[in-house]
User: Which sequence fits this backbone?
């Protein structure tokens, strides 16, 4: 390999700890026995991420505990691996029970990557958690850390034949790129210890990837999984209702750091079309190229998007072709026109019914975040009651919602009744609320600079009033809030994106489009909550008065020159 493709310098400390971890084992087992602290020590704090967990503490209580000279109340957040977001009713009942009995928040949190998280699991219960999941066929391998994460797949039950095929590919890609070390089975499931060698980890190697890596399988025209947030995307191309291959998009990602222009959101590049039999070879080649060429010196520039910009798209693509022993052919035509979930019932071509329910912020709990407004919902009980009778499956969406999929005609009325009584179906949810999304942020996320999940419900209440006042009742703007510039709520693909800057302060970005193929541009910095409403009021008033017929807000913001268009990610994203 030519040396200039590799960044030279002192390796980031994460590289040392991965390499020294004996294929992700570290001393996690010893640490688990240490009951003096509720947390994990030294390298294990980071290593548990590769087992799907993050050490956290509730930031609402941090100062109080510090005052009392107490250690933070350490616990873990677990993120499950659920390729394509499919979960069975039996699995649901088990995770529901675990959330009740062993998590301090009692919630099941659906994420923007089609899986669920438990928040607040104490150290003595961690092993039980993994064993409970294992007993229902779920694991948490590689849902965090420097590996390929949960593989997303458009959960579109209407196109059920293509969906089924695409889903099978999402599962296969997930399995193919998983770490092969048996560390997870040994530590959490008490399975026999077997030595792992470099030979056993042929794709990831003993130092795993330079940074997290994200993959999707998407079925146009829906871009519900937001391809441009991902390192590697397989865009399903079908012919006569049958999947024939994929267009491959590489190098998307949304995170940045305030004030550091070497970091930026970036759209994925089109590499071309491949037929189905090359899918795994191409997935592997993209991952191993990024493994070998990704920046292991500076983690801020380590993701695939930066590798592509550093070595050049053509060089990266040629290396993928060489490693996969293929030649990309010209991309087949497709278009992304939408991203939201179709809330409500739809009938699939399999004659089954599918009910998409809106879950605000993905938080499944018996009292909704609108408690202050006196509205309470029994979402968790409702889901449990449905799981007890449902014969199909559940599909988690990348918009933090959930589909009760595969309902027979004769079961529809019973499911609808429970869903209505528990608030899972709520006819009063506005289009604006359905188009809004926030990341977790406070109190559990250690990186949050501003509120997101706890801010969104009230923000949407106010935006609804503003839209109404400006003659836009029933219209909606893709509105997303993230508590920091890491961008977990994908604000950097929103028509209005709010990115946390400090307590109560946000930067406002404008101008993505409905298909999610344009990165928004910075409009104003350091806005407080009142400033945000004032801006949305004047912007939406202009939109109402000046827009072309059916023109979406993001398109209007660009056409009218409120912000300029980000065409080439880096150069247009920052003005100088
Ligand atoms: Fe994220 C870190 C939550 C999707 C970019 N993300 C975190 C952590 C684990 C904080 C930490 O490192 O300690 C957050 C835990 C909060 C909590 O208490 O639960 C967190 N991210 C989430 C979730 C739960 C947000 C949500 O509300 O649903 C999403 C879980 C996805 C999953 O199931 O795997 C989530 N994170 C995303 C996305 C969106 C996506 O992938 O579609 C992004 C932007 C896309 C991208 O990667 O560019 C995202 N999260 C990050 C980053 C920045 C990565 C980078 O490139 O620099 C971090 C911080 C890091 O990795 O250093 C981060
Ligand atoms: Fe936490 Fe920031 Fe991600 Fe929100 S965007 S969950 S605040 S890391």
Assistant:
């Amino acid at each position: 390999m030519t040396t200039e493709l590799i960044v030279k310098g002192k390796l980031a400390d994460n590289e040392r700890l991965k390499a020294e971890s004996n294929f992700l084992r570290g001393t996690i087992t010893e640490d688990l026995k240490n009951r003096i602290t509720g947390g994990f020590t030294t390298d294990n704090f980071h290593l548990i991420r590769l087992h799907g967990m993050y050490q956290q503490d509730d930031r609402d209580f941090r100062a109080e505990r510090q005052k009392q000279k107490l250690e933070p109340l350490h616990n873990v957040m677990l993120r499950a691996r659920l390729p394509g977001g499919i979960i069975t009713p039996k699995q649901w009942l088990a995770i529901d029970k675990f959330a009740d009995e062993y998590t301090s928040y009692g919630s099941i949190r659906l994420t923007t990557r089609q899986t669920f998280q438990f928040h607040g699991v104490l150290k003595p219960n961690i092993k039980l958690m993994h064993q409970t999941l294992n007993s229902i066929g779920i694991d948490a391998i590689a849902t965090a850390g420097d590996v390929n994460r949960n593989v997303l797949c458009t959960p579109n039950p209407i196109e059920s034949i293509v969906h089924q095929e695409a889903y099978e590919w999402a599962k296969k890609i997930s399995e193919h790129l998983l770490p092969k070390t048996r560390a997870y089975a040994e530590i959490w499931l008490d399975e026999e210890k077997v030595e792992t060698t470099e030979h056993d980890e042929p794709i990831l190697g003993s130092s795993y990837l330079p940074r997290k890596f994200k993959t999707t399988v998407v079925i146009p025209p829906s871009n519900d999984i937001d391809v441009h947030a991902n390192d590697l995307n397989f865009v399903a191309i079908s012919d006569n209702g049958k999947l024939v291959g994929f267009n491959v998009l590489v190098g998307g990602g949304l995170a940045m750091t305030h004030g550091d222009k070497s970091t930026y959101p970036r759209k994925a590049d089109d590499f071309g079309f491949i037929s189905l039999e090359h899918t795994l070879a191409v997935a592997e080649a993209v991952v191993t190229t990024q493994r070998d060429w990704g920046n292991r010196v500076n983690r801020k520039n380590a993701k695939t998007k930066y590798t592509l910009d550093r070595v050049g798209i053509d060089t990266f693509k040629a290396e993928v072709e060489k490693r996969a022993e293929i030649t990309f052919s010209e991309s087949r035509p497709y278009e992304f026109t939408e991203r939201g979930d179709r809330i409500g019932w739809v009938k699939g071509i399999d004659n089954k019914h599918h009910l998409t329910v809106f879950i605000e912020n993905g938080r499944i709990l018996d009292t909704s975040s609108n408690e202050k407004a006196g509205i309470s919902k029994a979402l968790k009980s409702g889901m449990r009651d449905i799981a007890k009778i449902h014969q199909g499956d559940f599909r988690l969406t990348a918009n933090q919602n959930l589909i009760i999929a595969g309902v027979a005609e004769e079961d529809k009325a019973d499911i609808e009744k429970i869903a209505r009584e528990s608030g899972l179906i709520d006819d009063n949810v506005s289009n604006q609320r359905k188009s809004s999304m926030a990341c977790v942020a406070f109190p559990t996320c250690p990186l949050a600079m501003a509120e997101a999940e706890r801010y969104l419900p009230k923000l949407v209440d106010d935006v609804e009033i503003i839209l109404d006042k400006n003659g836009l009742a029933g219209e909606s703007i893709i509105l997303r809030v993230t508590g920091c510039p890491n961008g977990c709520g994908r604000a950097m693909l929103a028509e209005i994106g709010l990115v946390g800057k400090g307590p109560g302060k946000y930067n406002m970005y404008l101008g993505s489009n409905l298909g999610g193929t344009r990165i928004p541009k910075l409009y104003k910095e350091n806005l407080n909550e009142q400033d945000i409403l004032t801006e949305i009021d004047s912007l939406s008033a202009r939109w109402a008065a000046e827009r072309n017929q059916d023109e979406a807000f993001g398109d209007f913001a660009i056409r009218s020159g409120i912000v300029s268009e980000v065409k080439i990610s880096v150069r247009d994203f920052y003005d100088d």
Remarks:
- The domain at 1-6+143-192+202-339 is CATH 3.30.413.10 (Sulfite Reductase Hemoprotein; domain 1).
